[in-house]
Amino acid sequence: MDPQQISLEVLLEKYAKHGETSAEEIFARVAEALAAPEKSPDTWRPRFLSALKSGFIPAGRIMSAAGTGMQATLINCFVQPVGDSVSEEVDGRPGIYTALAEAAETMRRGGGVGYDFSAIRPKGARVHTTESRASGPVSYMRVFDRSCETVESAGARRGAQMGILHCEHPDIFEFVRAKDRPGELTNFNLSVALSERFMQAVETDGLWDLTHPAEPSPEQQCEGAHLREDGRWIYRSVPARELWDLIMRSTYDHAEPGVLFIDRMNRENNLGYCERIEATNPCGEQPLPAYGCCCLGSLDLTRFVARPFTPDAAFEAERFAEVAAIAVRMLDNVLDATYWPLERQREEAKAKRRIGLGFTGLGDALAMLGLRYDSAEARDMAAGIARRLRDAAYLASVDLAREKGAFPRFEAAPYLASPFIAGLPEPLRARIRKSGIRNSHLLSIAPTGTISLAFADNASNGIEPPYAWTYLRKKREPDGSTREYPVEDHAYRLYRATAGDRPLPPAFVTALDISALDHMRMLAAVQPYIDSSISKTVNVPADYPYADFQHLYLEAWKAGLKGLATYRPNPVTGAVLEAAPATGVSRPEFDESDPDRRLRLEEVPTPPLASLRWRRRPRPAGGNPAWSYLIDHPLGSFAVFIGHVEDHGSHPFEVWVNGAEQPRGLAALAKSLSMDMRSNDRGWLKAKLESLMKAHGDDGFDLPFPPDGRPVRVPSLVAGFARLIYYRCAELGAFETLTDTPVLDALMSPKEPKTGPDGTLSWTVDILNVATGDDFIMALKELVLPNGQRRPYSIWLSGDYPRVLDGLCKSLSFDMRVIDPAWIGAKLRQLLDFPEPRGDFLARIPGTGRQRNYPSTVAYMAQLAIHRYAMLSLLDEEGQPLEDMGLMAYENLGPAIERPGKPVIKGARCPECGNDAVIRRDGCDFCTACGALGGCG
Question: Name one GO molecular function term (predicted).
């Protein structure tokens, strides 16, 4: 078959270097680079090239960087230790900020990093050197999170991170809940390290001690913390099932944390005699010691299926074993050919020579063999393939040891006594005893997202079944336009090429056709033959019952697995996956490509899901207190009321004005600001009020300012109004602690973008209200987002109108720059019924020839703005979003909006199409809206 166009595009975009235009040219470069460490490169170069052409796919870092001359690592991921000190080494672990610098250097060179933060003392623990209290590991994780967000990886947008905390750590509850709030630790995957003792306590419903070597504070000791006989401090004891239920509920709600059965990882570690595993790489398929690395590659199983889709279909085991043996040699050479970000990483790798050879395309290969993925026959076939891979890889490594020497930390007796090696065939064990072995570990099954798409015709990912047979991928082009590519699964494509339009055989099943337990059973079938681990994501639908889900991890432990991750579509997930920084929006540049030109933003924020929340006005049964203030202004006297609720503090939630002489338009601004006060972002309210406090007009005056009535000159009525609100909110403590700022982070531009001297086009409309004498033009300035979408970003008025409306326009312009149009839609809908005494008038309904009565000029302005958003396919004519980006959450406002069309699963922001639809699929990023794949593999 001819290559798929999307495969060629991805290959050229991500892997081709120095003018390469085909997979064959990339193979030639990689083969030459990996043959260079050999004594006879000319002998091995053609053999390596043959293996690449036969289905061996080294990991993405190798394919993109080998032989290019870049000082970038060929290693996908590392584990970095973190100690319990700010800067000093403690118990062999570097201080926190030393570890941060090491991680930054590693990510800068292209490697992802996993960490165990369990050594860091708990929140509140005593710090003797400064007689202060510790802030706990989660607080330091936020520092690592921001660093990862800032450091650009070689050949990638940003490095991947795995954060791990042991189940015994006193801060484990905070760790599990760390991602409950949208926007928190978005550059981390999280997993809990679970011990055998903890799992047994879960089974028996026992108590669980939360302990740490660090001394608790005197206050914590007064609350019951005490020293245990082994020298560890027990901070408190909890029911094991309480922690377990929190882990399961959190995983069900937003797909994290995953679990690592850490004692099993250590018990089954080939090098248990000389190292301790505390963490894994970011996708979990490589349990690694401090400074350990994962040197990965995969064999495309679809290339070894003879006579697919026929009764005579068979797996070519001998040829598979031959290619596997050459692949082992190639990955071993990667350890000598790569650039090492840190010297300690190089030392660790050379001492043990870990590699991770695995396979990809299992789901497709099973379909080609006529085996349904969730059948016992398919699991037997997969186990047989894994067993053949194990034996071929270990035999090849023994042969390499005879030629090049065993790995330096090899000790025959303890190595052969380890559980995995004890399970090898006796003839192979005898050869290891005699000759040693070149590599301490040889096997790992990793996610293969883009390398599968680029080099395997989109064969199913790693150990997974296919996610979908066909879909359309919308890819953003360099000029900002979008282009659609059809994408087909390899097995589906091959079947259609041979069978035409005949129905798919029963063996064709996708990930969501399979039960969660059957996903896990495939993992259990293959894991016994893999010495490291396997990256597998159990995908379940959004409506999967929690009653079935809650036992999944327990069953995984009973089945002998080393760990597990799950994905259920939900409103929170995706923050760790390709979430771009929410700050640093680039300066817009003028687009002169055509006469219909608008400002163009080159970068927009990617806030977390459901980060923008509306709260309906509270209605306490006993009423609520309000602060009132009388304002005497040349335009009239009126009162300002700012209401608050008292619930664990005083929380302002609304502002309104009253009085027959109140200036026209001020009540509309008050209504809009009340919605800001009820959002979940005090930083947003503070920034908006500070902006309005600078508003200039022709109605400036001396405002007697509380609490003593001293006169303060304000540049406009709007500025004075905003200043009073700010004063009262500050008095109530609203701005004392500004933590999460989800609305501010969602701004596509913090300040209003300015045009160049050539100007920009705006949408304008005339408004005439004879009843009030309003006669003006309303203009919506527009720009173009990176995905080509037009967006209003500012509203202006010109003509005869109440100047207070300038303040409303300034506030709404702020709202327009929130990336999710649902935000401005909600604001405008709240103004549609805004009444004004004797201000109602008859006007044309936008987009029709009919007329209707509008309750005020403000209401008609809101209707016109909604109409423009509808013209741009951003909102419907009622102000509801046409596409749910997943950022808005309406609390207690009725059922969710139902939208027609194909289902798009909520997730992180897609850099290709801009939709919030990136989910974790098979260990990789996948956009359910446009089909874009993330950079794993």
Answer: cobalamin binding
